[in-house]
Structures are given as structure tokens and as C-alpha cells.
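Suppose you are handed only these lines of text.
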Amino acid sequence: MIKYLKDFKKSLGLAKDVFFIQGEEKSKEEIRKSGCRTDVINKLLSGFDRPTHYLEVGVRDPRDNFLKIESKTKYSVDPGLEMEENLADFKCTSDEFFEGMNQGQWQNLPAKFDVIFIDGLHTAEQVDRDIANALEVLSEDGFVVLHDCNPPTQWHAREEFGFQRSPAGAHWNGTTWKAFVKWRKNKTLFSFCVDTDWGVGVLSKHSQMGKVLELENEFYEYQLLETRRQEVLNLISFEEFIQQTAI
Ligand SMILES: C[S@@+](CC[C@H](N)C(=O)[O-])C[C@H]1O[C@@H](n2cnc3c(N)ncnc32)[C@H](O)[C@@H]1O
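From them, the structure of the protein bound to S-adenosylmethionine can be written out as follows.
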């Protein structure tokens, strides 16, 4: 794939295109950042003084994150679109899973989860629904965590995953950021985004970390995210996050 993209860029003279150069640099910069989604989730889980329950929406290969999570119980949901063998506990979409929870269809599941990690279909509409559903089954002092909230360029934030002939190449954060920003405006929640691993967003009903977003971006223009990223996402560095004791 990488060779194909390199040949493609060469054939169109894009290797020298400023957007392609910047896009690649931004991807490399993101990958070099310290910490990752797993560290953020494990730090949040370690703050509970009781055995915890963890749910992951969109798991793909469990070795990448799920198996490294430290929690008393762990459950995963995935329709299995990206792996030959689907290793998720619940082999269905997030909508089907949450509907099943509402209907009391699943046996022996905790009624509430302490951390719910949303990393399934990265479109704003789906993530928005996943957040709303997750909040219904989140413990009062729990956290909703979202991957891919901080796309470094608008190419990374494209709607279509399949289009890889862009300066972001195969990297894709989708439009998750729009759903995160929408919920950052909700006055009943606290939120921040850890600046690592493409942006790890955190929402909480309880932990007073992070102000409500006042800034309006009615049409979710990427440009406004780009110019006021810190404020829009309430971005904090991984090091700052790890030092927090008040979470
Ligand atoms: C980015 S991967 C997940 C990576 C994993 N969470 C990790 O941290 O390594 C996205 C996964 O979401 C799954 N997915 C796609 N649509 C989904 C949906 N509607 N509900 C739940 N999962 C979905 C895909 O099958 C894929 O395995």
C-alpha cells in the first residue's frame, strides 16, 4: 500500500506538493507523541477504589488495546468488518448492542460500566449516537473515552475512509471530532482531550476536569477547529494528564 501511494504521488508530481508534505509530517508527529489510548484508559480505571467494568465499542484486533486493559470485567462489541476472525464478545454493531442492553437481552452483563471506550464507526452521526447510548449505561463517576478526536489535518478528518490518495494516506480519524465537540457543549458534562494517539477524548458526568465549550461552530467547519484547537477540544498534554490527581 505504501509503495502504491508513493508511486501514485510520484506519477502526479505530488511528492513535492505542500499539502502532501505537511500531511505526512503531521502524521509522523502524531505517531511520535508519548502515551497512547491504552495508557489513558488504564489511568482512568486505576482511579476507582472498587473493581471496575470496562466496555470497548469497536475492538478489531484485541491485542492492540483490549487485552492490555486492566479491569475486573471487560466486554467488547464489533461487527467484525476489519478482521477475518471476529474476536469480540458481542459480534454486532454498537446500535444493536445498546438496543440489546435496553431490552435486557444480554445475560450476566453489569448494569453500568466505569469506562466505555468508543472506537467503532468514525462518523459524527454514529459517534454521537454511541456517546448518547454510552452515557445511559455509564456509572455516575464513570468516563466515556473516544479515540480519534484530534485530526491533525482536514485530510485525516475526511468523511470517506476509502479515499486514501490524500495527504493523510491511509490514516483516518473520520468526523469523530464533531461528535466530541457537540458533547463538549453539554452543560451537564466535563470534558477534555489528551493530546496523543490522534486525540483521546474524555467525557465525565462527575470529574470536574475541563470547562464546557462556549465557542459556536454551527456548521462544524474544520478551519475553526484548526485555529482554536486548544479551546475547542480542551486539549491537554499526555504528561499533564498523567500528573492529574483530581480525576
Ligand atoms: C479503529 S478499529 C478499533 C480499534 C481498537 N479499538 C483499538 O484500540 O485498537 C474500528 C473497529 O470498529 C468496528 N466497527 C465498524 N462499524 C462499527 C459499528 N457500527 N459498531 C461497532 N463497531 C464497529 C470495525 O469492525 C473495526 O474493527
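What can we learn from it? The CA atoms of residues 113 and 138 lie 5 Å apart. The chain has nine helices and seven strands.
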